[in-house]
Amino acid sequence: MKCRPFTAFAALLIAFAAPVAHAKAKTAPALAAPAPKRIISLSPGVTEMLFALGLGGKVVGDTMYCDYPEAAKKITKIGDVRPNYEKIVSLKPDLIVVDEVAEKSAVLRLRQLRQPVFVVHPDSFAAVERSLIVIGDATGRAAQAKAVVAGMESKRRQAASFAKNRPGTHPKVFFVATLRPLWTAGRGTFVDDVVAIAGGENVAHGVQGYAEYSKELLFSNPPSVIFADDQDLSAIRADPALRQLPAVRTGRVAGDGGEMIQRPGPRLADAALYIARVLYGDRR
After folding, report:
1. Residue 15: which of 167, 129, 118, 126 has the closest Cα?
2. Alpha-helical regions (H) of 73-214
3. Which of 96, 141, 187, 252 lies 20 to 30 angstroms, CA to CA, from 113?
4. Which pLDDT value is given to residue 33?
5. Please, which pLDDT band fits residue 167 given cuts at 50, 70 and 90?
6. Cα–Cα distance between 179 and 168 in angstroms, integer?
7. pTM for the full model?
8. Strand bridging mode 225-228 / 183-185
9. Domains in the chain and their CATH numbers?
10. 80: CB partners within 8 A, 6+ apart
């Protein structure tokens, strides 16, 4: 999947009377809602977006997995993969930003509870940029959002330049989402997209979304580079089967850049640069 150039989305009105808004939809401009003062994030990527827009001081709740930036660790936790809806309601939020890719069921439940839900769908690099823009529009941080997106675009171009200076080379990449069982990210995911931006070829592009992946399939189209959670690196190198892969034998097994690759937020641009440097080295 190629990253499409960023196109600005129209501003979205947060309809508190029937409180659900979708960042994928375009709506005509309407009366501006007051800038939210009490925001809840239901995913680490969204939390990173909010902090990047200068909204960290307004975030009153996030998840147990929201650990970047450092200040996110100190925010009241509203659950892990299972949101504590009673806790969410008790915090009296005026905006709850939900990543629909990861938290589709939460959207339905929060809507039933008449909570002010704002939905984003960051399933690609460009979709992360769009999410930043619509969140910025909804929170009075439009200028900050444009600046963050401009920075992401600069890094995206820099990452893409590694491959452009080495025409004809597209190293095969495999991303380990979980090791036991072995799951990976296929087409239609932001991981697949960022690998392509960095000039790599995702060997799992043939599968849709996040899926279990057999070792037999992996050996039938072996990657030259493997990316995995930092905690899985030693286990991959010690696995009797996986250590026979060329990438493992040659030491081309890399970490996930401090979870940058796994989070659809502003640092996805840094992830693209990180992947490009692993694939092609720092010399261009």
Report:
1. 118
2. 85-90, 104-112, 125-139, 142-164, 190-197
3. 141
4. 63
5. low
6. 31
7. 0.85
8. unpaired
9. 39-120 (3.40.50.1980), 162-280 (3.40.50.1980)
10. 63, 64, 65
Question: How high is the pLDDT of residue 16?
Answer: 26
Q: Which secondary-structure segment (H or E) carries 44?
A: helix 44-52
Q: DSSP per residue over 64-104, as a string?
A: TT--SSGGGGGSPB-BSSSB-HHHHHHT--SEEEEETTT-H
Per the structure block, which two tokens stand in for 260? 């940058």
7-20 pLDDT per residue, tens? 222 222 222 223 33
Q: What is the mean pLDDT of the chain?
A: 86
Rounded-to-integer distance, Cα 212 and Cα 178, Å: 9
**H or E element: which one contains 60?**
strand 59-61
Structure tokens at 262: 């796994």
Q: DSSP label at 165?
A: T
Average confidence (pLDDT) over 85-89: 97
DSSP 8-state code for residue 254:
E
How would you label 107-146 residue by residue, b for 16+ Cβ within 10 Å and e otherwise?
A: beebeeeebbbbbbbbbbbbbbbbbbbbbbbbbebbebbb
* Whether the predicted pLDDT of 77 surpasses 50: yes
The pLDDT score that the predictor gives to residue 25 is 37
Please give the Cα distance from 181 to 129 (Å, whole number). 32
Phi and psi angles of residue 249, each rounded to the nearest 5 degrees, phi first? -60, -35
Distance in angstroms (rounded) separating the CA atoms of residues 138 and 23: 10
Nearest alpha carbon to residue 68 among 97, 98, 42, 45: 45
